[in-house]
Amino acid sequence: MTATTNTGDACALPTPTDAAACALPGSAPAVPGRTRVGPTQQERFALLRRAKSIAIVGASNNPARASFFVATYLLSSTAYDVYLVNPRETEILGQPVYASLKDLPVVPDIVDVFRRHDDLPGVAQEAIDVGAQTLWLQLGSWNEEAAATAEAAGVSVVMDRCIKIEHARFHGGLHLAGFDTGVISSRRQLLAR
């Protein structure tokens, strides 16, 4: 086999140096400095299937915030019991808002977190204290201290993944481009010319 030049596509050539860039999500840390490997696609799907309730910590009443969009999706497009947590709000999307996880009327299966990096270890401990099964840190959130604390207590941890995107992808509602097409099909649709 002769050597070729990589034209910028990390997955164009199956060389050992490119192997990490081509790895499937969850199979290896994708960002330098991240040592933890999260749940595989199948494991994330299983976490979502088992769950009956989700608490969104850091829920916002601001429609421009990701937590508002995720709450809207979970409330309107899933069968989950959704609980919103924010000590500064009393109602979001017509739902009551709780000051903390310990104030919820149930133990949430998944604690979906929209908080600053430095707050994540504390939220992980709160999730443990209330008996949650999964700590889910949204896109852009990665905290190995929080993950280690939760996992040591037997709590599953997903980091740097959007629960809305994962749910929609697993349930046929997410198009390759990232938006809901409203079509669930195993056939590719032909584009009109």
In short:
With 193 residues, this protein is an alpha/beta fold. It is built from 6 helices and 7 strands.
Mean pLDDT: 81
DSSP strand tally: 7
Instruction: Trace the largest sheet across and list its strands.
Output: 3-4-2-1-5-6-7
Which range best describes the helical content: under 10%, 10-25%, 25-40%, 40-55%, 55-70% or over 70%?
25-40%
Task: Give the overall form.
Answer: globular
Taken as a percent bin, the fraction of beta residues is: 5-15%
Tally of alpha and pi helices: 6
- Separation of termini? 41 Å
Which ranges are low-confidence, i.e. pLDDT below 50, for 5 or more consecutive residues? 1-29, 175-181
Q: Rg to the nearest angstrom?
A: 19 Å
What's the story with the biggest beta sheet?
7 strands, mixed
- Helical/strand content category: alpha/beta
SSE arrangement, N to C: HHEHEEEEHEHEH
Describe this structure in words.
The protein has 193 residues and is α/β, with parallel strands linked by helices. Helix 4 (120-130) runs parallel beside helix 5 (144-152). It has a seven-stranded mixed beta sheet, with helices on both faces. It has helices spanning 16-22, 41-50, 66-77, 120-130, 144-152, 163-170; strands at 53-57, 81-85, 91-92, 95-98, 110-113, 134-137, 156-158. It has six helices and seven strands. The relative contact order is 0.13.
List keywords for this structure.
193 residues; alpha/beta; seven-stranded mixed β-sheet; 14% strand; globular; disordered N terminus
